[in-house]
Amino acid sequence: QGVGKNKLVDRLLELMQRPREYIQLHRDTTVHSLTLQATLKDGQVSYEDSALVQAVRTGHVLVVDEADKAPVNVTCILRTLVESGEMVLTDGRRIVPPGEGGRVPNSIETHPDFRLIVLANRPGFPFLGNDFFAALGDVFSCHAISNPDPESEIFLLQQYGPKVPIKTLRTLVNAFGELRTLADEGMLNYPYSTREVVSIVKHLERYPEENMSEVVGNVLDFDRYQPEALQQVTQVLAKHGIESYAE
C-alpha cells in the first residue's frame, strides 16, 4: 500500500504508448457493476458497457485497482476471462476469444491487443482484503512491488520537493525506512510507505517555514489513538531527530 503501484503502471503504459481503461473495485462491487455501468442522460438512467467491456472490444489495457477489496466470487469471473478468453455478461452477451466472434451470436470478440493489469494489496492486517493471489494468482504473471531503496526514494522525493534540503529528505527516508522494518517484523500494524513521505515533502515544499515535526504529526496523527503504536513511532522519529512529535 502506498508504494506507487498506480504511478508505476501509468508510467509503463505511457512509455508503451498504450491507451488504458480504469476500474476500481470495492466491497460492494457486483458482477453486474463489473460489466455494466449506470449513467444519467437527460434525466433517465441508462446502462453502458463498463471499462472492462470497452477495453476488451477496443484492445485497450484494462487496469483493475483495489482488486483485493471486492468479494472473491466477483473477481473470480476474471479467471474465466484470462484462462479461456470468454465471459458471459449479465445482459446475455458473451465475450469470446479473437477470431470467434462470427461463430457465436450476440457476442463481443476480444481484441488481440487487449491486456489486463490487476493491482491488489497483500492479504491480512491492516488491509483486511481478500486473498486475491490465492484465488487468481496462478493465472497472472505476478510481481511484488515494494518501497524503493533509500537512494531511489530520495531521488523521487526531490521531484516533489526540489527546494527541500537533502538533509531533511534523508532524515525522513531513514526514519520511515526503520518504521517499515518494524512493520515487516510485525511490531507495527501500519506499513508506513512512500505515500506518507511524499505527502510530508509536498507540504514542506509549499510551506518551508513550518516545523518538520509538526508536518510529520499531521500525517501520522491517527497513531495517537493507539498508545502502543504511538510510543514506538515516537521513539523511532526521535532517534532520527524528529523530537516534538512525541509532545
Structure report:
It is a single chain. With 247 residues, the protein is α/β, with parallel strands linked by helices. The chain is 43% helix and 14% strand. It contains eleven helices and eight strands. The strands form three sheets. Strands 1-4-8 form a three-stranded parallel β-sheet, sandwiched between helices. Strands 5-6-7 form a three-stranded mixed β-sheet. Strands 2-3 form a two-stranded antiparallel ribbon. Strand 2 and strand 3 form a beta hairpin. Helix 7 packs across helix 8 and helix 8 crosses helix 11. The mean pLDDT is 86.
Low-confidence stretches: none
CATH superfamily membership of the largest domain: P-loop containing nucleotide triphosphate hydrolases
CATH-scheme architecture of the largest domain: 3-Layer(aba) Sandwich
Number of helices: 11
Helices and strands, in order, run as: HEHEEHEHHEEEEHHHHHH
Structural class: alpha/beta
What's the CATH topology name of the largest domain? Rossmann fold
* Average residue-wise pLDDT: 86
The outline comes out as: elongated
Q: What portion of the residues fall into strands of 2 or more residues? A: 5-15%
Structural Rg: 22 Å
> Could you give the distance between the termini?
28 Å
Oligomer: single chain
Please provide the count of β strands: 8
Biggest sheet: strands side by side, in what order? Answer: 1-4-8
Number of domains: 2
The level 1 CATH classification of the largest domain is Alpha Beta
Helix proportion range: 40-55%
Biggest sheet architecture: 3 strands, parallel
